[in-house]
Amino acid sequence: MLDHVLSVTSLCKNYGTKAAVEGVSFDVAPGEIVGLLGPNGAGKTTTINMILGVLEPSAGTVRINGLDIQSRRSEALACTNFAAVYAPLPGNLTVVENLNFFGLLYGVKDIPRRIEELVAQFSLAAFRHVKCGALSSGEQTRLCLAKAMLNRPQLLLLDEPTASLDPSTARDIRTKIRTFTTGGTGGVLWTSHNMHEVEAVCDRVLFLSHGKILLQGDPRTLPAQHGKKALEDLFIAVAREPLTLANG
Amino acid sequence: MSFHRVLAILLRQYYLIRGSFTRVLPLFVWVVVDIVLWGFMTKYLNTVTSSGLDFVPMILGAVLLWDFFLRIMQGVTMAFFEDVWSRNFLNIFATPLLISEYVTGLVLSSMATSCVGLVTMVVLATGVFGLSFMVYGAMLVPFVLVLFLFGIALGILGCSIVLRFGPAAEWFIWPIPALIAPFAGVFYPLTTLPAWMQYVAHFLPPAYVFEGMRTLVAGGNVPAGAMVSSLCLAVFDVVLACVVFTRTYRHAVRTGLIARYSAENLG
User: Which domains does chain A have, with CATH numbers?
Assistant: First the structure.
């Protein structure tokens, strides 16, 4: 088994003279949930887009399960999946149609059976034949997560996966994702602005600010190491005084 | 190339069409309108002219073949527009899908939907207006093949334009066949055109088809060299369109346009 399901090395993305991501390096191990945190515009989504192969890095490498995303894109993405609030599934297809479509794209074996498992797991059974555009935002989020689990990915990228869920469903989803990592060989890269959630779920966090990793460590001990009471205080400090933290 | 991933693109189109009469109707309504309109027009022309020409195979046959070309082109672009309209680029291009598989899926979708239009046109043109394909003989095969390939090429080129310039560029795509039609000599011999337009026509595969069709109807033989030229041109156009689409996609990945397509242009 590989040491890391994801290895990001010296990743950079420049738009003209502006650096959106600057020399970011990190790994995600099998069974690990890594939180990618930072204020809006810090470079989290840009980093995720480069990992997903939909944005070409200006420099650096991304390896998923040891496969370089640039040179072996299709193989690397076959063992990856993602869910993001800004990428809803087509609203003009039903739940089952969408899962069938993406099941074929990801090369899932025995798609009908896998769909039934996921529909039950994410409480979507009543919406099997409902067009996704008619689902509530919470139901759409659950569907996106079901799609993200279709191919039992080695690497799961979740960009604010619980943003539109009620607290009860959000807790349920967190448990499912936790089970996904403990039960298999998959690793998760998770972005969230909910610091309580991050503390509860993530094994390790990376704080991004202005495209660079400013801090990293255990979310339960990191605040104290930087003189803060809670992760939320540390987040606010990263957002407001990144230079102080970087030099401290 | 993965059969399953190509099938996914086809299946998605099937799902969309089966659940929507607004997608089903255009598959045959416009071709019916065209064939009925030009069917009566050709019948009328046959009664008022004393040239002895039979306008049914000349004009109605040309309309049928031109509409087939249009359906093929629009079949490719419409399948692509489904991803534009549903803002699905991020989901679809973050999968293992290869560009070659995506384009193959669009082309196969177009073939399936165009067949509906073609069958409708053939039934109507032969059954109601007496168009006989016997007059074209075996040449019908290269005629259809050239128009099919050129339709595919223009369809893929249209997708590239929309991918590069954003959803609003859709309006550049619809008039393309109307811009080509005068140069392709769909309804008149190329000698009718001024010299510069005839020069442009030499680069358009459909021009050879419609010129050849008129030659056959007039009792002549289509020069084999002309048909080989048009086939080569059409194949070249398909290859060129695929290269343009691939380069446009790479540009979109480099600039971040795939992930932020609604922004239309990111430099």
Answer: 6-79+153-247 (3.40.50.300), 87-152 (no CATH)
